[in-house]
């Protein structure tokens, strides 16, 4: 795992965006796994800027989103479908048929999940997966005790996640759907590389457990210790509980230029 600590969320997101942009340039038909939540917003803004000002071309790119709430129609303002179109897809030249987001209104959820897994395989697998982390250490919506072997499926959110996400539903936790479809941890681990972002003090404990704690399903993100290419982009506030932060800084400062965006 590579830990990249930068001064603030904006600087960190811009560094992470360079890595995504490099892949998009080098592999015009790359497959990206994308996340929602407040964390990747600046990364997406930077990708939009790179498209609009520097011509970064998404016309051959395919995307798969991590998760979606069950029971929210796509046009609901808090569906992850709406989030992605508003914050990224409507502002870049991606082809709509190359965008995949789990269908939270699917009549047959297990069937829809199996089809989602198949679509990822048909696309050739995910080259780069963008991830955030929940305050309880979840990735996607894989809550604590999720199987490390899990694939795309239905999950029930924890009360902590309902509380955390209530801010998107007028602060009313009862409006947050209790169920979701999420890529499994096995699905996420199949990605060629992982780019995780986390900002702020409220993520510091989850980051420390993920990076320096034991690998255990009570901290789903800790499985990333077993991924061969996992990069964790965090700001100083999210780094506060890391015992070896100085070592991670030392490693990053000493990297040769050619390795920086790879
Ligand atoms: C949500 C999403 C995750 C996201 C996480 C953190 O519940 N399902 O994909 O990474 O929680 O959200 P935020 O970035 O808003 O802190």
What distinguishing features does this structure have?
single chain, globular, alpha/beta, 10 strands, Rossmann fold
Q: Can you tell me the CATH topology?
A: Rossmann fold
SSE ordering: EHEHEEHEHEEHEHEHEH
The secondary-structure class comes to alpha/beta
Shape: globular
Q: How many domains? A: 1
Strand content: 15-25%
Question: If you compute it from the alpha carbons, what radius of gyration comes out, rounded to the nearest whole angstrom?
Answer: 17 Å
User: What's the β-strand tally?
Assistant: 10
Span of the ends, CA to CA = 14 Å
Helix content: 25-40%
Helix run count: 8
In short:
This protein has helices at about 10-25, 40-55, 80-85, 110-120, 160-165, 185-190, 205-210, 245-255, and strands spanning about 1-5, 30-35, 60-65, 65-70, 100, 130, 155, 180, 195-200, 230-235. The protein is α/β, with parallel strands linked by helices.
Describe the structure.
This protein is of the alpha/beta class. The chain has a single domain, classed as Rossmann fold (3-Layer(aba) Sandwich). The protein is about 30% helix and about 15% strand. A seven-stranded parallel β-sheet has the order 1-10-9-6-2-3-5, with helices on both faces. Helix 1 packs across helix 2. It is globular, with a radius of gyration of 17 Å. The two termini are about 15 Å apart. The mean pLDDT is about 95. 2-amino-2-deoxy-6-O-phosphono-alpha-D-glucopyranose binds next to helix 5.
Write the layout of secondary structure elements.
Elements: E1 2-6, H1 9-26, E2 31-34, H2 41-54, E3 62-65, E4 67-69, H3 80-87, E5 99-100, H4 109-122, E6 128-131, E7 153-156, H5 159-165, E8 179-182, H6 185-189, E9 193-198, H7 204-212, E10 230-235, H8 245-253
Helix pairs in contact: 1-2
This protein binds 2-amino-2-deoxy-6-O-phosphono-alpha-D-glucopyranose.
């Amino acid at each position: 795992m590579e830990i990249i600590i930068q001064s603030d969320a904006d600087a960190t997101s811009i560094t992470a965006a360079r890595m995504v942009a490099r892949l998009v340039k080098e592999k015009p038909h790359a497959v990206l796994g994308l996340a929602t939540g407040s964390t990747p917003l600046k990364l997406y803004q930077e990708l939009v800027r790179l498209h609009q000002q520097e011509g970064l071309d998404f016309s051959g790119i395919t995307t798969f989103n991590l998760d979606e709430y069950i029971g929210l129609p796509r046009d609901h303002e808090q569906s992850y479908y709406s989030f992605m179109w508003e914050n990224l897809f409507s502002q870049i030249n991606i082809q709509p048929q190359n965008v995949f987001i789990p269908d939270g209104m699917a009549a047959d959820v297990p069937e829809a999940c199996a089809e989602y897994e198949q679509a990822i395989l048909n696309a050739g697998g995910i080259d780069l997966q963008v991830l955030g982390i929940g305050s309880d250490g979840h990735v996607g919506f894989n809550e604590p005790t999720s199987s490390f072997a899990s694939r795309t499926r239905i999950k029930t959110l924890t009360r902590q996640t309902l509380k955390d996400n209530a801010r998107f539903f007028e602060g009313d936790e009862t409006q947050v759907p209790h169920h979701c479809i999420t890529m499994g941890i096995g699905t996420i681990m199949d990605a060629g590389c992982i780019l995780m972002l986390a900002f702020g003090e409220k993520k510091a404990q989850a980051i420390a457990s993920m990076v320096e704690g034991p690998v255990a399903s009570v901290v789903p993100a800790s499985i990333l210790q077993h991924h061969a290419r996992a990069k964790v982009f965090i700001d100083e506030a999210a780094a506060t509980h890391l015992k070896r932060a100085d070592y991670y800084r030392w490693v990053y400062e000493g990297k040769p230029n050619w390795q920086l965006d790879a």
